[in-house]
Amino acid sequence: TTAPKPKRSTEDAEVGGVRISHPTRIVFPGTGDTKVDLARYYEQVADWLVPQLKDRPLTLVRCPQGAAHACFFQKHLTDTMPEGVQPVEIKDESGSATYMLANDVRAVIQLVQSGVLELHTWGATQRALEQPDRMIFDLDPAPDVSWQQVVEAAQLLRGLLQEAGLGVFLKTTGGKGLHVEVPLKPGADWDTVKAFSKAVATHLAQQLPDRFIATMSKAKRNGKIFIDYLRNARGATAVAAYSTRARDQAGVATPIAWDELPTLASASFWTIHNVPERLAAMKHNPWADYDKARVKLGPKIVQKFGI
Ligand code: ATP
Ligand code: MN
Ligand code: MN
């Protein structure tokens, strides 16, 4: 006799007081994780994630049918968004638009309920939208670049930034590459931060042209790592630490310590399955000193790269 098939519940579930519809819908086909699994992941990591989101305008990746189906980016608040998401009015090309903030765990779980699989944030907070409080170097390896090369690239970039007197932090993207982050004291404007990050990327590409490229051109990227400094433009976003990725294997963008990097297997090693355990067992938060390390990107530093 064959065992009866487990009943596929069509009933709603509840996580953190938020109703989850289609709880058994598979959102990550590679792992079989469902919508309610995802909501529970976010409930578990809320204390780590929420500070990363707080007061930062969002761009969301929504995939109503899961990571295997169509996804779209959304940056404006629409009336289909859950009520826990807060509005923030921002001036843009069109005059002004309403952007979104997710400032608590309830908002995050409500976003999961609305089909969100990725949370991306501005590098500035609502308090000072024109003065970034972080600079991001997004290391994008061409498909033929080895993981070892990506690791070395991050280490080289770190050295250069440290030499300029900056604090340098690291996260996996849950995808292919790494994000190297520099916490800033708000002060410099977007144009300055973007120009500085471009100068750093260009410098590395000139010094080590076999390894790095600082221009978008896909054609010239073979074998190289594109140092994507364009995350530092006003209105650009980068995936938030502890956000999931809309990819097959339920990868999570994960802060790591520099001494973890040499033994890390890949940018997608950390997932919704091992991140909660990692956090529970962690003795030292790799980003514990992130706020302490903030530096103002003033003339002295900026001049080192000829800006
Ligand atoms: P990977 O390590 O695989 O490169 P990533 O998050 O760095 O992962 P990228 O493709 O390099 O992915 O993109 C960097 C960031 O640019 C994303 O995290 C996202 O915030 C932003 N981004 C990319 N494409 C879009 C888009 N179409 N609309 C809005 N933001 C985007
Ligand atoms: Mn990238
Ligand atoms: Mn990129």
TrEMBL record:
One term of GO molecular function: DNA ligase (ATP) activity
Keywords, ordered alphabetically: ATP-binding, DNA damage, DNA recombination, DNA repair, DNA-binding, DNA-directed DNA polymerase, Exonuclease, Hydrolase, Ligase, Manganese, Metal-binding, Multifunctional enzyme, Nuclease, Nucleotide-binding, Nucleotidyltransferase, Transferase
Top-level lineage group: Bacteria
GO biological process: DNA recombination; DNA repair
Name of the protein described by the UniProt record: DNA ligase (ATP)
Gene source species: Amantichitinum ursilacus
First and last residues shown, out of full length: 574 to 880 of 880
